[in-house]
Amino acid sequence: MSTQPAGAKDQVARLLTLVPFLHARGKVRLEDAAAALGVPAEQVLADLKVLLMCGLPGGYPDDLIDVDLDALEEPEGDGVIRVTNADYLARPLRLSPTEATAIIVALRALRGSAGDDTREVVDRALAKLEAAAAHGSGAHQIDPGEIPGGADLVRLEADLRRASGARRQVRLRYYVPSRDELSERVVDPRGIVTAHGSTYLDAWCHSADAPRLFRLDRVEAAHVLESEIVSDPEPPRDLTDTGLFPRSPETTLATLELDPAARWVVEYYPVEDVRPRRGGRLEVDLVIANERWLQRLLLRLAPHARVIAPAAYAESYAAAAREALDLYG
Amino acid sequence: MSGTTGRKSERLLNLLIMLLVQRHFVSKDRIREILYPGMSDDAFEKMFERDKEELRSLGVPIEVGSIDAYFDDEPGYRVRPDELSLPDIALTPDEAAVIGLATRVWQHARLADATTEAVRKLAAFGVEVDESALDIAEPRLSAEEPSFDVFWEATQERTPVEFEYRRSGATRTTTRHLQPWGVVRYSGRWYVVGLDTDRGQERVFRLSRVQGEARRAGAPGSYDVPPGTDVRATAMRLAPPPPAGETVVLVRRDAGGPLRRDAVAVETDVAGPDRRTAWDRVRLARSGSEVAEQLLGYGADVYVESPDEVRTIVIERLRAVVGRDS
To answer: Does the ipTM exceed 0.85?
Structure first.
């Protein structure tokens, strides 16, 4: 949903979209127009009242645009918007450079995940839009590149979405980085969620007997089974506020000090808090669901990250480093 | 909506209609007489300027021309219907369907809105959308880098940008000046390509390493992108090349899945540094400090045989942790 528009410019923009829309669709009810524009019905009504005061510059009553307000405001009105005398506004505005670029880049991204037949459709649509946006679009300067993981990943997502919708169980082969192993499990899918640039399957995992998130690029294979889910159906979690590792009894808050060489961590992982320290260092709070995951990260960063709390993690980190170093005698 | 906003909307729309329905240029005096009655010269000039700007920013192409060939000091204004409206794009239902899907691609509020707005305009051509027949999955494009918007706009407007940049591993940021040519996504991250005016050379910058706000530093249209620039090819050319070479490691049985998957060769059951588990020899077709970092993450499950450079990095970095602790 768009942000709530305010101001005359937005109102004029809406009207310049609404009038052609009504013109093309014929009978449109106020609520349907509001839904199509993504604003409340009262807003559309206020917009239409502005229209009533506009028209040809002659100043005669016949010059003005007419809106049948009775149909919209009277109790016996049928709620259908009728605008007359506005034929000169019947065609939509050209796409603005930002709109043209945004939609063309989005279609290019779609192209990468389409099957052969659909790719041909996307190409046709792109050609028409590019021709229509010939002036002023900077679309060729924005390149969305390949979607990470390519079409396979996007197809996997589509399969898992379908399985969630149909409440069918899925057998997953999944790579668990913290344990560095491939696992095989049956899950009851709940839906697909995204957070921090990655896409996850939220599912009830029968191996863990608990809800789990599976990062799609770590799914080696997914097989949708004939069997129906056995756990209670639940919508997927909303990760936008809680983050990937919502605080729960199973998670721990760890505080790390990062040298400049390890600052990239805050770009890659959801951090609860970041506090600048002297010498370009950062102190960060990270919610840890799995200590092994943290230990692997710390070893990767060695020696540019230090555990400030909890102390037990600092000890196991030092022990892991010593064990690795011992291999070299 | 307040009454003032409503009145301003009326004025803007009436101005647009007035300029649109006349075949000739409309004189400023006539515009003033009809739409801005009773205003002082100053107030009129200011308001008229602002109204024209607002209409232009909505995409209304207001032309300025001279009304009288003999007196070109009197400007007139008009909007050509064919310049104002979208050309008739005859979309087939399947094309309309993929265009409908495009609204769900951007995970970036402004661009998602812009796409939706574009689709609304196209929807005015009255095509019914049926997405069910499509053999397509929906990719998501995100742009979480705070400076993305500034670089995106600057690229389109050809406005120079100034920003603080921190190179990988560097402590300090430096102020950079760039004429952006394009914004490119690669491995899920956005980069900007352009002419670094301090160095007089083309450069690529990762947007996530831009610190704080990027700022416009010049007027729109103040430079040209070199003709024939392929922004992706430029980004690829300028990005640091993947380190060449070979790294040979020993990996414990049942560990190091990702290493095995991109290995050139795996030799099983070789002599290892201890006998706690069996060991396999894994050859990787890359080398350098990034590989060392990846290998460090496996702790005591991986032992580096060669090259010395990687082995030394791993040993020294582990020593730095252990030494500090003891």
So the answer is: no
